[in-house]
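Appendix B. One record, verbatim.
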Amino acid sequence: MAASPHGTLQWEQQRAADIVQLLSLYRPLLDAYVIDFFTEGLWAQLPPPWQTALGSAAPPHLAHLLGGPEPGGPGPLWPLSLLAFAAASRALSFPRGPPGTAPRPPCHSRRLHPLLRRHVKPKKQHEIQRLGKLLQRLSQATGCTHVVDVGAGQGHLSRFLAFGLGLSVTAVEGDGRLATAAERFDRELLRELHKTGGASPHPRHRRPPLTPRGPQHIPGRLDPALPWGEFLLPPDPPAPAARNPLGGPGGAADGARVLVTGLHACGDLSPALLRHFARSPSVAAVASVGCCYMKLSTPPGYPLSAWVSALPGHELSYRAREGACHALEQYRGRLAGGGSPCLRAHCYRAVLETLIRGARPGLRRPGVQTVKKAHALSFPQYARLGLPRVGLDPASIPLDSDAIGTMLQQQHKVVAFFSLTLLLAPLVESLILLDRLLYLREGGFHCALMPLFDPRFSPRNLVLVAARCPLGTVLAGLEEEESSEDEAESPPAQ
Protein backbone atom coordinates (compact mmCIF):
# COMPACT_ATOMS: atom_id res chain seq x y z
CA MET A 1 0.00 0.00 0.00
CA ALA A 2 1.25 3.48 -0.74
CA ALA A 3 2.16 5.79 2.09
CA SER A 4 0.95 9.35 2.19
CA PRO A 5 3.01 12.03 0.41
CA HIS A 6 5.99 13.07 2.49
CA GLY A 7 4.93 16.71 2.57
CA THR A 8 1.44 15.88 3.82
CA LEU A 9 2.84 13.76 6.65
CA GLN A 10 5.27 16.51 7.68
CA TRP A 11 2.47 19.08 7.66
CA GLU A 12 0.26 16.93 9.91
CA GLN A 13 3.14 16.19 12.27
CA GLN A 14 3.97 19.89 12.53
CA ARG A 15 0.34 20.75 13.18
CA ALA A 16 0.14 18.23 16.04
CA ALA A 17 3.37 19.61 17.51
CA ASP A 18 2.09 23.19 17.29
CA ILE A 19 -1.18 22.23 19.01
CA VAL A 20 0.69 20.54 21.85
CA GLN A 21 2.87 23.63 22.29
CA LEU A 22 -0.12 25.98 22.38
CA LEU A 23 -2.03 23.79 24.83
CA SER A 24 1.04 23.67 27.07
CA LEU A 25 1.15 27.48 27.16
CA TYR A 26 -2.46 27.65 28.39
CA ARG A 27 -2.50 24.54 30.57
CA PRO A 28 -4.15 26.28 33.57
CA LEU A 29 -7.02 27.44 31.37
CA LEU A 30 -7.20 24.06 29.64
CA ASP A 31 -7.58 22.18 32.93
CA ALA A 32 -9.87 24.67 34.68
CA TYR A 33 -13.40 23.65 35.70
CA VAL A 34 -15.86 26.51 35.31
CA ILE A 35 -17.75 25.27 38.40
CA ASP A 36 -14.63 26.29 40.38
CA PHE A 37 -15.01 29.89 39.17
CA PHE A 38 -15.69 31.28 42.65
CA THR A 39 -14.15 28.62 44.90
CA GLU A 40 -10.74 28.85 43.20
CA GLY A 41 -10.82 32.49 42.04
CA LEU A 42 -10.45 31.66 38.35
CA TRP A 43 -11.18 35.19 37.13
CA ALA A 44 -8.24 36.61 39.08
CA GLN A 45 -5.93 34.11 37.37
CA LEU A 46 -6.48 35.75 33.99
CA PRO A 47 -4.08 38.50 32.86
CA PRO A 48 -5.41 41.91 34.06
CA PRO A 49 -5.84 43.29 30.51
CA TRP A 50 -7.91 40.21 29.67
CA GLN A 51 -10.08 40.77 32.73
CA THR A 52 -10.77 44.37 31.70
CA ALA A 53 -11.72 43.52 28.12
CA LEU A 54 -13.71 40.38 28.87
CA GLY A 55 -15.52 41.99 31.79
CA SER A 56 -16.98 44.63 29.48
CA ALA A 57 -17.68 42.35 26.49
CA ALA A 58 -21.30 41.85 25.52
CA PRO A 59 -22.31 38.30 24.49
CA PRO A 60 -22.24 39.07 20.73
CA HIS A 61 -18.62 40.24 21.03
CA LEU A 62 -17.74 37.02 22.85
CA ALA A 63 -19.37 35.13 19.99
CA HIS A 64 -17.12 37.02 17.55
CA LEU A 65 -14.09 36.03 19.64
CA LEU A 66 -15.21 32.40 19.16
CA GLY A 67 -15.26 32.82 15.40
CA GLY A 68 -18.76 34.19 14.89
CA PRO A 69 -19.73 37.15 12.71
CA GLU A 70 -18.62 40.62 13.73
CA PRO A 71 -21.43 42.37 15.61
CA GLY A 72 -22.44 45.92 14.99
CA GLY A 73 -21.61 48.71 17.41
CA PRO A 74 -18.47 49.39 19.43
CA GLY A 75 -16.89 46.53 21.31
CA PRO A 76 -14.10 46.08 23.82
CA LEU A 77 -10.52 46.89 22.97
CA TRP A 78 -9.11 43.37 22.91
CA PRO A 79 -5.52 42.97 24.17
CA LEU A 80 -3.16 41.78 21.43
CA SER A 81 -2.22 38.73 23.52
CA LEU A 82 -5.88 37.68 23.70
CA LEU A 83 -6.38 38.21 19.97
CA ALA A 84 -3.25 36.16 19.26
CA PHE A 85 -4.51 33.36 21.52
CA ALA A 86 -7.90 33.28 19.78
CA ALA A 87 -6.37 33.45 16.29
CA ALA A 88 -3.88 30.67 17.00
CA SER A 89 -6.58 28.45 18.48
CA ARG A 90 -8.80 28.85 15.43
CA ALA A 91 -5.93 28.46 12.95
CA LEU A 92 -4.65 25.20 14.42
CA SER A 93 -8.05 23.56 14.97
CA PHE A 94 -9.11 21.17 12.26
CA PRO A 95 -11.73 22.82 9.99
CA ARG A 96 -15.22 21.73 11.01
CA GLY A 97 -16.78 22.85 7.76
CA PRO A 98 -19.28 25.63 7.12
CA PRO A 99 -22.78 25.09 8.49
CA GLY A 100 -25.24 23.67 6.00
CA THR A 101 -27.12 26.02 3.76
CA ALA A 102 -30.48 25.18 5.30
CA PRO A 103 -31.78 28.22 7.25
CA ARG A 104 -32.39 26.05 10.30
CA PRO A 105 -31.47 22.54 11.47
CA PRO A 106 -33.46 19.99 9.51
CA CYS A 107 -36.61 18.39 10.73
CA HIS A 108 -37.39 15.05 9.13
CA SER A 109 -35.07 14.44 6.20
CA ARG A 110 -36.98 14.02 2.96
CA ARG A 111 -34.00 12.14 1.55
CA LEU A 112 -34.78 9.18 3.82
CA HIS A 113 -37.67 6.85 3.14
CA PRO A 114 -40.47 7.47 5.66
CA LEU A 115 -40.12 3.93 7.02
CA LEU A 116 -36.46 4.65 7.80
CA ARG A 117 -37.36 7.85 9.66
CA ARG A 118 -39.47 6.08 12.24
CA HIS A 119 -38.07 6.22 15.78
CA VAL A 120 -35.15 8.34 14.48
CA LYS A 121 -34.59 11.89 15.70
CA PRO A 122 -33.82 14.55 13.06
CA LYS A 123 -30.18 14.85 14.16
CA LYS A 124 -29.66 11.11 13.72
CA GLN A 125 -31.46 11.16 10.36
CA HIS A 126 -28.99 13.80 9.16
CA GLU A 127 -26.05 11.71 10.38
CA ILE A 128 -27.06 8.29 9.04
CA GLN A 129 -27.93 9.72 5.63
CA ARG A 130 -24.53 11.39 5.23
CA LEU A 131 -22.46 8.56 6.72
CA GLY A 132 -24.46 6.08 4.65
CA LYS A 133 -23.58 7.96 1.47
CA LEU A 134 -19.88 7.82 2.41
CA LEU A 135 -20.04 4.09 3.16
CA GLN A 136 -21.80 3.49 -0.13
CA ARG A 137 -18.90 5.19 -1.91
CA LEU A 138 -16.39 3.12 0.09
CA SER A 139 -18.27 -0.01 -0.92
CA GLN A 140 -18.05 0.90 -4.59
CA ALA A 141 -14.34 1.79 -4.36
CA THR A 142 -13.31 -1.36 -2.46
CA GLY A 143 -15.74 -3.85 -3.96
CA CYS A 144 -16.96 -4.73 -0.44
CA THR A 145 -20.70 -4.94 0.12
CA HIS A 146 -20.56 -6.16 3.74
CA VAL A 147 -20.54 -3.47 6.46
CA VAL A 148 -19.93 -4.14 10.16
CA ASP A 149 -21.55 -1.44 12.30
CA VAL A 150 -19.88 -1.56 15.72
CA GLY A 151 -21.77 0.02 18.61
CA ALA A 152 -24.92 -0.05 16.48
CA GLY A 153 -27.32 1.01 19.24
CA GLN A 154 -30.91 0.74 18.08
CA GLY A 155 -29.74 -0.02 14.56
CA HIS A 156 -30.73 3.18 12.79
CA LEU A 157 -27.58 3.36 10.65
CA SER A 158 -27.58 -0.40 10.05
CA ARG A 159 -31.21 -0.28 8.99
CA PHE A 160 -30.54 2.48 6.46
CA LEU A 161 -27.49 0.68 5.05
CA ALA A 162 -29.36 -2.61 4.68
CA PHE A 163 -32.91 -1.68 3.74
CA GLY A 164 -32.12 1.66 2.09
CA LEU A 165 -28.82 1.03 0.30
CA GLY A 166 -28.98 -2.74 -0.16
CA LEU A 167 -25.72 -3.50 1.65
CA SER A 168 -25.11 -6.62 3.70
CA VAL A 169 -24.88 -5.40 7.29
CA THR A 170 -23.80 -6.92 10.59
CA ALA A 171 -24.76 -4.79 13.59
CA VAL A 172 -22.71 -5.36 16.76
CA GLU A 173 -24.12 -3.95 20.01
CA GLY A 174 -23.10 -4.63 23.60
CA ASP A 175 -26.27 -3.38 25.28
CA GLY A 176 -28.80 -6.19 25.01
CA ARG A 177 -31.73 -3.82 25.46
CA LEU A 178 -30.67 -1.69 22.49
CA ALA A 179 -30.07 -4.76 20.33
CA THR A 180 -33.54 -6.07 21.22
CA ALA A 181 -35.08 -2.73 20.26
CA ALA A 182 -33.17 -2.76 16.96
CA GLU A 183 -34.55 -6.18 16.03
CA ARG A 184 -38.06 -5.06 16.96
CA PHE A 185 -37.76 -2.01 14.69
CA ASP A 186 -36.49 -4.26 11.88
CA ARG A 187 -39.53 -6.52 12.18
CA GLU A 188 -41.83 -3.51 12.25
CA LEU A 189 -40.25 -2.13 9.07
CA LEU A 190 -40.50 -5.51 7.33
CA ARG A 191 -44.21 -5.74 8.11
CA GLU A 192 -44.79 -2.31 6.59
CA LEU A 193 -42.56 -3.17 3.66
CA HIS A 194 -44.67 -6.21 2.82
CA LYS A 195 -47.76 -4.00 2.82
CA THR A 196 -46.38 -1.26 0.57
CA GLY A 197 -43.81 -3.10 -1.53
CA GLY A 198 -41.13 -0.59 -0.47
CA ALA A 199 -42.19 2.18 -2.82
CA SER A 200 -42.11 5.76 -1.56
CA PRO A 201 -45.56 7.14 -0.67
CA HIS A 202 -44.52 10.36 -2.46
CA PRO A 203 -43.34 9.46 -5.99
CA ARG A 204 -42.07 12.98 -6.66
CA HIS A 205 -39.17 12.35 -4.26
CA ARG A 206 -37.82 9.65 -6.63
CA ARG A 207 -36.40 7.49 -3.86
CA PRO A 208 -35.31 3.95 -4.79
CA PRO A 209 -37.52 1.29 -3.19
CA LEU A 210 -36.37 -0.38 -0.02
CA THR A 211 -34.84 -3.85 -0.14
CA PRO A 212 -36.39 -6.64 1.96
CA ARG A 213 -33.09 -7.73 3.54
CA GLY A 214 -32.40 -6.32 6.97
CA PRO A 215 -29.21 -6.28 9.06
CA GLN A 216 -27.96 -9.23 11.08
CA HIS A 217 -27.67 -8.37 14.78
CA ILE A 218 -24.82 -9.81 16.85
CA PRO A 219 -24.71 -9.21 20.61
CA GLY A 220 -21.23 -8.43 21.81
CA ARG A 221 -18.82 -5.84 23.12
CA LEU A 222 -15.45 -4.92 21.71
CA ASP A 223 -12.42 -5.35 23.94
CA PRO A 224 -9.78 -2.84 22.77
CA ALA A 225 -7.01 -4.89 24.40
CA LEU A 226 -7.67 -8.10 22.46
CA PRO A 227 -6.16 -8.96 19.07
CA TRP A 228 -8.31 -8.19 16.06
CA GLY A 229 -9.48 -11.79 15.65
CA GLU A 230 -10.77 -12.11 19.21
CA PHE A 231 -12.45 -8.80 19.83
CA LEU A 232 -15.95 -9.88 20.85
CA LEU A 233 -16.90 -10.14 24.52
CA PRO A 234 -20.28 -11.29 25.84
CA PRO A 235 -22.93 -8.56 25.76
CA ASP A 236 -24.64 -7.09 28.77
CA PRO A 237 -26.78 -8.98 29.74
CA PRO A 238 -24.89 -12.11 28.60
CA ALA A 239 -26.04 -14.01 25.54
CA PRO A 240 -24.64 -16.99 23.60
CA ALA A 241 -21.27 -16.36 21.98
CA ALA A 242 -21.50 -14.92 18.48
CA ARG A 243 -19.31 -15.34 15.41
CA ASN A 244 -16.76 -12.59 15.00
CA PRO A 245 -17.71 -10.64 11.85
CA LEU A 246 -14.14 -9.35 11.45
CA GLY A 247 -12.65 -12.78 10.88
CA GLY A 248 -9.95 -14.54 12.88
CA PRO A 249 -10.60 -17.23 15.51
CA GLY A 250 -14.32 -17.87 15.70
CA GLY A 251 -14.92 -15.50 12.81
CA ALA A 252 -15.38 -15.53 9.09
CA ALA A 253 -13.40 -18.37 7.60
CA ASP A 254 -14.08 -17.54 3.97
CA GLY A 255 -11.67 -14.63 3.82
CA ALA A 256 -14.42 -12.21 2.86
CA ARG A 257 -13.52 -8.55 3.34
CA VAL A 258 -15.68 -6.04 5.21
CA LEU A 259 -16.09 -2.34 5.80
CA VAL A 260 -16.18 -1.27 9.44
CA THR A 261 -17.92 1.79 10.83
CA GLY A 262 -18.72 3.34 14.18
CA LEU A 263 -21.07 6.32 14.39
CA HIS A 264 -20.05 8.24 17.52
CA ALA A 265 -18.10 5.25 18.79
CA CYS A 266 -17.57 6.16 22.43
CA GLY A 267 -14.24 6.45 24.25
CA ASP A 268 -11.78 3.67 23.45
CA LEU A 269 -14.11 2.11 20.88
CA SER A 270 -12.98 4.45 18.08
CA PRO A 271 -9.22 3.79 18.48
CA ALA A 272 -9.98 0.07 18.86
CA LEU A 273 -11.71 0.09 15.47
CA LEU A 274 -8.63 1.71 13.93
CA ARG A 275 -6.36 -0.90 15.50
CA HIS A 276 -8.52 -3.71 14.16
CA PHE A 277 -8.42 -2.16 10.70
CA ALA A 278 -4.63 -1.81 10.83
CA ARG A 279 -4.11 -5.41 11.98
CA SER A 280 -6.79 -7.21 9.99
CA PRO A 281 -6.41 -7.77 6.22
CA SER A 282 -10.11 -8.69 6.16
CA VAL A 283 -11.06 -5.06 6.93
CA ALA A 284 -10.89 -3.15 3.64
CA ALA A 285 -11.80 0.26 5.05
CA VAL A 286 -13.04 2.01 8.17
CA ALA A 287 -15.13 5.14 8.76
CA SER A 288 -15.10 6.31 12.36
CA VAL A 289 -16.87 9.21 14.06
CA GLY A 290 -15.68 9.47 17.65
CA CYS A 291 -17.18 11.00 20.78
CA CYS A 292 -16.89 10.99 24.59
CA TYR A 293 -13.18 11.73 24.57
CA MET A 294 -13.14 11.92 28.37
CA LYS A 295 -13.72 8.14 28.41
CA LEU A 296 -10.47 7.51 26.56
CA SER A 297 -7.87 5.56 28.49
CA THR A 298 -4.50 7.34 28.37
CA PRO A 299 -2.93 5.17 27.04
CA PRO A 300 -3.82 3.02 25.08
CA GLY A 301 -6.77 5.01 23.68
CA TYR A 302 -4.62 8.16 23.45
CA PRO A 303 -2.00 8.62 22.14
CA LEU A 304 -2.01 6.06 19.33
CA SER A 305 0.74 7.41 17.06
CA ALA A 306 4.46 7.19 17.71
CA TRP A 307 4.77 10.85 16.71
CA VAL A 308 2.35 12.31 19.27
CA SER A 309 3.59 9.90 21.95
CA ALA A 310 7.05 11.40 21.59
CA LEU A 311 5.92 15.05 21.88
CA PRO A 312 6.72 16.56 25.31
CA GLY A 313 3.51 17.81 26.93
CA HIS A 314 1.13 15.74 24.79
CA GLU A 315 -0.78 14.52 27.86
CA LEU A 316 -4.45 15.51 28.11
CA SER A 317 -6.25 15.65 31.44
CA TYR A 318 -9.76 14.35 31.96
CA ARG A 319 -11.00 17.96 32.04
CA ALA A 320 -9.29 18.77 28.74
CA ARG A 321 -10.82 15.72 27.05
CA GLU A 322 -14.22 16.46 28.54
CA GLY A 323 -14.05 20.04 27.26
CA ALA A 324 -13.39 18.76 23.74
CA CYS A 325 -16.92 17.33 23.73
CA HIS A 326 -18.63 20.71 24.09
CA ALA A 327 -20.72 22.15 21.28
CA LEU A 328 -18.89 25.38 20.40
CA GLU A 329 -21.22 26.34 17.55
CA GLN A 330 -24.32 26.03 19.72
CA TYR A 331 -22.83 28.11 22.53
CA ARG A 332 -21.60 30.70 20.04
CA GLY A 333 -25.12 30.93 18.65
CA ARG A 334 -26.51 31.67 22.09
CA LEU A 335 -23.94 34.41 22.58
CA ALA A 336 -24.58 35.91 19.15
CA GLY A 337 -28.28 36.14 19.94
CA GLY A 338 -27.56 38.64 22.68
CA GLY A 339 -27.30 36.23 25.57
CA SER A 340 -29.73 33.35 25.89
CA PRO A 341 -31.16 32.73 29.39
CA CYS A 342 -29.50 29.31 29.09
CA LEU A 343 -26.15 31.03 29.70
CA ARG A 344 -26.87 31.39 33.40
CA ALA A 345 -26.61 27.63 34.00
CA HIS A 346 -22.81 27.70 34.47
CA CYS A 347 -23.06 30.54 36.96
CA TYR A 348 -25.75 28.70 38.92
CA ARG A 349 -23.58 25.58 39.11
CA ALA A 350 -20.51 27.60 40.16
CA VAL A 351 -22.48 29.27 42.97
CA LEU A 352 -23.88 25.90 44.00
CA GLU A 353 -20.31 24.56 44.22
CA THR A 354 -19.44 27.27 46.78
CA LEU A 355 -22.45 26.25 48.89
CA ILE A 356 -21.48 22.57 48.67
CA ARG A 357 -17.89 23.19 49.75
CA GLY A 358 -19.02 25.52 52.50
CA ALA A 359 -21.29 22.86 53.96
CA ARG A 360 -18.94 19.94 53.30
CA PRO A 361 -15.35 21.09 52.59
CA GLY A 362 -14.13 17.65 51.58
CA LEU A 363 -16.71 17.33 48.80
CA ARG A 364 -15.31 18.70 45.54
CA ARG A 365 -17.08 18.75 42.16
CA PRO A 366 -19.70 16.14 42.98
CA GLY A 367 -21.83 14.99 40.10
CA VAL A 368 -25.08 16.94 40.07
CA GLN A 369 -27.52 15.62 37.52
CA THR A 370 -28.73 18.22 35.07
CA VAL A 371 -31.57 20.29 36.49
CA LYS A 372 -34.13 20.54 33.73
CA LYS A 373 -34.77 24.07 32.49
CA ALA A 374 -32.43 25.51 35.11
CA HIS A 375 -32.34 28.81 33.24
CA ALA A 376 -36.05 29.28 33.88
CA LEU A 377 -35.63 28.93 37.66
CA SER A 378 -34.51 31.39 40.29
CA PHE A 379 -31.28 30.39 42.01
CA PRO A 380 -33.06 29.33 45.25
CA GLN A 381 -35.32 27.08 43.18
CA TYR A 382 -32.32 25.63 41.39
CA ALA A 383 -30.41 25.05 44.63
CA ARG A 384 -33.37 23.32 46.29
CA LEU A 385 -33.32 20.81 43.46
CA GLY A 386 -29.54 20.43 43.26
CA LEU A 387 -28.43 20.21 46.90
CA PRO A 388 -30.37 17.04 47.79
CA ARG A 389 -28.64 15.27 44.90
CA VAL A 390 -25.36 15.53 46.79
CA GLY A 391 -26.88 14.68 50.16
CA LEU A 392 -27.34 18.21 51.51
CA ASP A 393 -30.50 19.67 53.05
CA PRO A 394 -31.45 22.98 51.36
CA ALA A 395 -33.26 24.07 54.53
CA SER A 396 -29.95 24.16 56.40
CA ILE A 397 -28.22 26.48 53.90
CA PRO A 398 -29.16 30.16 53.32
CA LEU A 399 -30.01 30.63 49.67
CA ASP A 400 -30.60 34.37 49.51
CA SER A 401 -27.54 35.86 51.20
CA ASP A 402 -25.74 38.99 50.00
CA ALA A 403 -22.72 36.82 49.11
CA ILE A 404 -24.85 34.70 46.78
CA GLY A 405 -26.33 37.82 45.22
CA THR A 406 -22.83 39.20 44.58
CA MET A 407 -21.78 35.99 42.84
CA LEU A 408 -24.92 35.90 40.69
CA GLN A 409 -24.16 39.43 39.52
CA GLN A 410 -20.93 38.11 38.00
CA GLN A 411 -22.69 35.87 35.53
CA HIS A 412 -21.16 37.77 32.60
CA LYS A 413 -17.68 36.97 33.89
CA VAL A 414 -18.53 33.27 34.21
CA VAL A 415 -19.81 33.29 30.63
CA ALA A 416 -16.68 35.07 29.40
CA PHE A 417 -14.38 32.62 31.20
CA PHE A 418 -16.25 29.63 29.82
CA SER A 419 -15.98 31.15 26.34
CA LEU A 420 -12.19 31.19 26.72
CA THR A 421 -12.15 27.50 27.61
CA LEU A 422 -14.27 26.78 24.53
CA LEU A 423 -11.56 28.28 22.32
CA LEU A 424 -9.35 25.38 23.42
CA ALA A 425 -11.97 22.65 22.95
CA PRO A 426 -11.56 22.26 19.14
CA LEU A 427 -7.77 22.21 19.63
CA VAL A 428 -8.01 19.19 21.93
CA GLU A 429 -10.37 17.37 19.58
CA SER A 430 -8.04 18.18 16.67
CA LEU A 431 -5.05 16.76 18.54
CA ILE A 432 -6.89 13.54 19.41
CA LEU A 433 -8.04 13.05 15.81
CA LEU A 434 -4.67 14.05 14.33
CA ASP A 435 -3.07 11.44 16.57
CA ARG A 436 -5.39 8.82 15.06
CA LEU A 437 -4.69 10.06 11.56
CA LEU A 438 -0.92 9.92 12.14
CA TYR A 439 -1.23 6.40 13.54
CA LEU A 440 -2.74 5.35 10.24
CA ARG A 441 -0.18 7.35 8.23
CA GLU A 442 2.60 5.58 10.11
CA GLY A 443 1.09 2.29 8.98
CA GLY A 444 1.16 3.45 5.38
CA PHE A 445 -2.62 3.54 4.95
CA HIS A 446 -4.66 5.91 2.82
CA CYS A 447 -6.67 8.09 5.21
CA ALA A 448 -8.43 11.40 5.54
CA LEU A 449 -10.17 13.46 8.19
CA MET A 450 -13.12 15.53 7.04
CA PRO A 451 -16.24 17.29 8.36
CA LEU A 452 -19.27 15.22 7.41
CA PHE A 453 -22.15 16.62 9.47
CA ASP A 454 -23.43 20.14 10.05
CA PRO A 455 -21.62 21.27 13.23
CA ARG A 456 -24.57 23.38 14.41
CA PHE A 457 -26.50 20.33 15.54
CA SER A 458 -23.92 17.50 15.26
CA PRO A 459 -20.97 18.82 17.30
CA ARG A 460 -18.91 15.66 16.76
CA ASN A 461 -18.98 16.03 13.01
CA LEU A 462 -15.50 14.91 11.91
CA VAL A 463 -15.17 11.48 10.28
CA LEU A 464 -11.88 9.63 9.97
CA VAL A 465 -11.76 7.46 6.85
CA ALA A 466 -9.04 4.92 6.13
CA ALA A 467 -8.64 2.32 3.38
CA ARG A 468 -6.16 0.03 1.72
CA CYS A 469 -6.80 1.76 -1.61
CA PRO A 470 -6.66 5.45 -2.64
CA LEU A 471 -9.55 7.57 -1.36
CA GLY A 472 -9.59 10.24 -4.06
CA THR A 473 -12.66 8.94 -5.87
CA VAL A 474 -14.44 8.25 -2.58
CA LEU A 475 -14.14 11.77 -1.22
CA ALA A 476 -14.18 13.77 -4.46
CA GLY A 477 -17.19 16.03 -4.59
CA LEU A 478 -18.78 14.55 -1.47
CA GLU A 479 -19.14 17.87 0.37
CA GLU A 480 -20.43 19.71 -2.72
CA GLU A 481 -22.92 16.93 -3.37
CA GLU A 482 -24.26 17.12 0.17
CA SER A 483 -24.42 20.92 0.03
CA SER A 484 -26.46 20.88 -3.17
CA GLU A 485 -28.84 18.33 -1.66
CA ASP A 486 -29.22 20.56 1.40
CA GLU A 487 -30.24 23.44 -0.85
CA ALA A 488 -32.74 21.25 -2.67
CA GLU A 489 -34.24 20.15 0.62
CA SER A 490 -34.43 23.62 2.20
CA PRO A 491 -37.90 25.17 2.35
CA PRO A 492 -38.38 28.19 0.09
CA ALA A 493 -37.79 31.62 1.58
CA GLN A 494 -40.92 33.35 2.81
